[in-house]
Queue: 4 jobs
Job 1
Amino acid sequence: MKRRGSITVFAALAMMLVAQMLFTLLEGARHIEIEKVLQMNTDSVAESAFADYCSPLWDTYHLLGMTAADSSGSFSLNNREAMLRNLTADNLGSKGSIAMLPGISLLTAEMVDAEFEPYLIMTDRNGRVFEEAVCAYMKKNLGYEAAKTVYNIYESANDAKNNYGDGDKSIGDAMDALEEAAKEEEENSSKKKLKGIGGEKNTKDAPPEPEVENPLETVTEAKQNGVLSLVLPQSAKVSASRLDLSRAVSHRNLNMGTGVISDAADWYQKVLVNQYYVNYLNCYTNSDGNRALNYELEYLIAGKSEDSENLRVIVGELLAVREASNMASLVVSASKQAEAMALATALAGATLNPLIIEVVKYGILAAWAFAESVLDLRTLLSGGKISLVKSELDWTSNVHDLPVLLSGWSVAKECSAGMNYSQFLSLLLLMHNGEKLAMRAMDVQEATVQKNEGYETFQMDHVLCESRVSAVYEYSPVFLGFVSLLKNGKGNIRIQNTTTYSYRQGKEGA
């Protein structure tokens, strides 16, 4: 007798419910795994987008930035957002792919929307974003202690400039004092003649007094001829490159990012940024001729359109720094003070007025410091090194030989442990406004990148430094189609996740 299998309606319904529960659990597990995969994909495609940085900007200036522009050269994120979607399609396939077939992943999804928001552009906050990007790179190349040493040198130079940086006034006061001494001497001579003292007989018999060379007049005349001609030989070749400032970053209206940036930098960040300038921007003594301006460091400080004008400004500022440092050396040297006093007495001693003699002495010291500074700049511009504050052994000039030294081509003694031209420029950079320096740095970087083929429309205010990437995905359920209790079992499911990538700080998951 054959037995026939049978099942009750209740058992059949129970099995259906169990099956639907299993399919639901399978879809839930799939959803959890897809969420993980999609977050990894968001991180991956964001990194891929930011890995497509501007190559000439990195190769020349070691600065990372992702360009966001359309085919016309206008700022646009559409191409970058499309790039994220295309990369996702390559990574994950399409939500419409048929699952359950051999070789087909159950983890397919489609990025239906992508957005860079908020974002920071390199030029935001007057170059503050640029400075932070530079700091992120330089922290790997310049330690805290080395930066502190640089800053201490700057403070020393700045103190000397504040205390002894008014040489022109000292020379002017000394010239006025000599005029006053001449008037006093003339008045005294007239009075003696009226009283019958010091007749003509005595003056005829007296030997003529030796003429004393006045260094104040020598230096005043030299300054009127221009300092550039004093420190550069006539055979020196000065760059004729120029920059169109009307189109430069620092002079035009810029695109702006939507992100938030921190406040001004502290001393450590300032040193890092300025050391970056010295390391990667050209100057008079270190120029490869492949930049839009050959004297980039000089432009950062002077801001003129022509290399020659920028060099002229820098020579004047460096001369002021060297004058202050050399004056600091003179005022602590007893022997040089004595030489200046002897010369001041010879020039104005007939008045017997100690106040006038003292003023003339300080004027002579200022003139001496100027002459020594001219010799210093000649050495620096020829590639040599000079001590920040000179010792007796480092000193070159003699107060009695200033006319010969300034009219000829004498140079200062080189000091192997001293600072070169670009290092002195780093001190000048620290004395100037950081925002202006950053914007001018981007002026020259933009113009240089534009010289490369294919980058003619490159702009620094099209360069992203940081952004949050928000992605929306859709995928089709696989197992929910077997769950009859769900009305929307065959509808698409959406997942949104974000990630942040920054050249200032690296990648941050969100």
Job 2
Amino acid sequence: MRCPYCGCTESKVVDSRPTDEGERIRRRRECFNCAKRFTTYEIVETTPLMVIKRDNSREPFSREKLTNGLLRACEKRPISLDQIDEIIDKVESKAYGGMEREISSKRVGELTMEFLKDLDEVAYVRFASVYRQFKDIHSFMNELEKLLNEK
């Protein structure tokens, strides 16, 4: 594994543990050159899960796109990167858990919001506002009222 900080190809595994009910192995590594730590994931290569977008185009499921969306929603919130990774792991596990080879972007967003709602309500509302494309303040308020009524 190449170190993302210095590019060295030599590192040692510091910690290794299964995630996603054994579907993936998370490894913490330490670079021999710069001594910085980084995380890698080992997964079984499978047929890619395709995401059906709103315009009916299809693209492969991307952890990176979901990570970027969650990072924006969780900005300045007390949420660790490990918690964000855990949400993405859960969403990905549910998405791959079905027997379908395609999933709608709507379903990916719903799964993400489901797990995010339990973690942080502000981040949930931020994510929902982008995902659901609120047209005006009324649709935003409706979502807030639903959230308050659930409490």
Job 3
Amino acid sequence: MVYLNLLIAYLKIGLFGFGGGYAMLSLIQHEAVEVVHMGESAPWLTSKEFTDIVAISQMTPGPIGINSATYIGYVATGGSIWGSVLATTAVCLPSFVLVLLISGFLLRHKENRYIQYILSGLRPVVVGLIASAALILMNRENFPDYTFSIAIAVGAFLLVRYTRMHPIWIIVIAGITGFLVY
């Protein structure tokens, strides 16, 4: 039953996850942490496990949505590689099929004002989904003290905005600061 649940969940995520991996995170979090799927006794992951998966998915090469699908498929099926393959395929399949179906149409009608309106309407949705993913990850497990976390984020923003310091160095400084504070 878990394989069917994985297939359905990740087909939905792949179909409605406009905007890439970060936009998919709120959908993935909902399916993996909040929903008890048909025939199962508990969600696939805890909130802490989901946060860990997001961190690991960011560090490994590839899109975060696909990396997290691979790992969640593995965990949800009790360590089966087939769960990883199924979840990864299911999250990629809707995008693949949609691109095949509409790419020719969009190329022919890209100047059509109605198509432009549709694409313009999707942009705020993508921003909202990415903001939702950021809000989901802002919890007590990730940020035990919001004061220091906000200070680190504001400091990093100010360094990026007003200095010529390379962003890699800012990330390193923020990481060291977080390690020392927490």
Job 4
Amino acid sequence: MRIIHPRPNPIVAAMYTLRDMNVDIIIIHGPAGCCFMASRSIEEAGVRVLTTGFTDNDLVFGASEGLVETLKIAEKKFSPNTIAVIGTCASMIIGEDLKAAVKRAGLKCNVFSVDCHGCMGDNTSGAIKALESARDAGIITKDEADRQINIMNAATELEKKCGMAGKDYLSPTRGPTKFRVAKTIIRAIKDNKKVVVAVIAKKELIYRFADIFLAVNEVKNKFNGTTYFIANIDKNIGLPRIRRYADDVFNELSSKGVKIDSVIGGLDEYPVIGEKIKIDADAFGYDLLVVVGIAHAYPNLPKSAILITDQPRQLTNYLKTGYENSVGEISSHSMVMSTRTIVPMETADIIREMLGDYQ
């Protein structure tokens, strides 16, 4: 099957993985505009992104001297502890030797290179390259690198089995409004039905998806209802930045009176925890299931489930496969890049607004 809708890029996946390791600087060895939008987002998260800015001459005569110069400028100007040099399609095509340029620069800080490009295939291949390079540079342990690589492979398998990578074309949609699902959640709790809310979040998106817990908890308190909350926010699992996300959100939820009944896995383990989440959800004996985030990681989803995703093409996938109670929190990723607190969801805000109509 030829997939013709846009898919995530291996270079960008490598950049986000480097961000999660808390590297100080990422240098993109390629044209100035390569991965421009991703670079802006990553800089909002506190990682400086630089470019060697390939020109026409670089494509003909080579660009290693430009990389050496950029490395020296970066160390002198910013005094970083770690720099990661990341390859691009352009550097791959002209055969740039990133390791040799890094060695020739002779920097005092920890510098390592990631040989990747946009034509490697699955986006996770870029993340795996970053993990392997970081392992070899002593940034992460072999055990953590192996764990992360297994997760990346599982994520690829999941997307090809039931996600966007398994469909030839999916048109993006903003989907239906959230009023019907908000009303369904409120009514179920009001009628003393058991409601399970399971958040299967991918990394920083937990800052937005966690708002569903706050809203549903308000409904629970108003009607003295029965709800169970499940989330993959184990703050002891994952790369440094990922553990920080989990810690931030867990502490904020606790301070606002929300108890997570079942914590299953870390924020990077969304592809491998679906079965465990399902076991706990089934054990609670729910009447209504709400799955937020990477909903297709939850196996054998009932068609009656409410699904909430941030991906417009994934939302199309859910709606086309019969999950009529699916809604989208589109553009969530751009809202959470620099936050340290929970960001309101539209679905959650509508729940809160509708709840005010009940006396």
